[in-house]
Amino acid sequence: MGGAMGVRGWLCWADVVPTAVLYGSLSLFISILHNVFLLYYVDTFVSVYKIDKVSFWVGETVFLIWNSLNDPLFGWLSDRSFLSSHDSGAQISSPEVVLKRLRSLSRNGPLFALSFLAFWVAWAPPALQFLACLCLYDGFLTAVDLSHNALLADLAVSAGDRARLNFHGSLFSALGSLSVFLSHCFWDKEDFFSFRLFCVTLAAVSALGFAVASGLLRRRFRGEARQRHDEAAALRELCVGKAPLAQDQNVTLGQYLRQLSRHRNFLWFVSMNLVQVFHCHFNSNFFPLFLEHLLSDRISASTGSFLLGISYIAPHVNNLYFLTLCQRYGVYHVVRWLFVLKLTLSALMLLGGADQVYLLCVFIASNRVFTEGTCKLLNLVVTDLVDEDLVLNRRQQAASALLFGMVALVTKPGQTFAPLVGTWLLCVYTGYDIFERDPVQDAVAVRPESGTPAAIEVTLRQGCFYLLVLVPITCALLQLLAWSRFTLHGRRLQSVKALRQDSRHGRPPDIKAV
Hints:
The protein is mostly helical.
């Protein structure tokens, strides 16, 4: 009796937790694993498992293809029923869509945590394990990310509610970034046992968190879905003999792609976002290199560690402030201000030169913080594109996951272009090859006319500085050009949201305490 009372009391307490908090907590269970993965998977296979260079690049190439294709593939499999305009498809209610996303999260979340564990124990030859782990991990990460991002569009329509959901996602992502600091206490290439235990603990917390949070959300929306289903059944009984309003027609993948190719705001957005993804990953890939060659002899090791750590947490914390600005001025204007700020800071750094140590510290950290912060806001723009796609093509239900997948298909190649373009420019300018055991000596061999390793280091320092400032200047100019052609803001955005809100089949569920 006491146990039943306890369970009933816990469920009653769980019903009080706002939907936005439960939605945001899912970001925590993703970020505690993904941040550790990003930091250590390359070092683990290169330094611990001793993978060779050819196998590493073959694995990364296959991963690039899989990473780009699985987003639209999983999005199509998830949302193809929503692209149907026949009568049965029209009866899918918004709560039922939310429940479908939550079932996917409750299933794929724990599997995502298990795939994370496959990296940290040697169970196959390094080349095979590298390829298998990357593809398996990214497959479940994509399934989780698509469902989670689609919920942002499916749970709410108004800009204020979506910003509130994103706010909680950023707050919990910032908490999840603390796993990066904890990981330094356990990371040891010579003794991997402690780090493995740490990863097992993280995976257990993540798997349990996905099960609990998605279970509570499913319980919350199941009653509403049942009520909508009963109402629809009653309406069908009253309308016996009347012709359905929708035609019996399915939208094929080819037709959907043609519709998307005519969606001008989508095309301008992905053009801008491709550059944004490139810049985000460029900063991540070359952050340690910039610290080493521009600041290592001028700042302490603890200051360098602080800059590295703050660059992971600050974007999430800063995003909380950006979201309040979005509620006041709109996402479009905030993103444009961030592009202008990036261009201004980069130009000032270029004028200041490589010898301004404190300015370099601020710029290296702020460049990553503002760039990552912009990435966090762009999901809100994608949700607006989901609304416009629904209105323009008169869909019965928004294909949220599929549109997020199509955005990823076009923009994810920026992840691979970033290290390739960066290392190519650095090698062309300085002769520096990061894959050599002694890259400075290698640069001397490539450019014997340059003289001593000290002279090469000066050239390398200048090359890093110009990469640091010219890449964001170029990115900001391209993004401002594309963003100026994006029209889904102001009155047009309000009109689109009003049409979706008033649509009989597109009404959002009651998200209660969001």
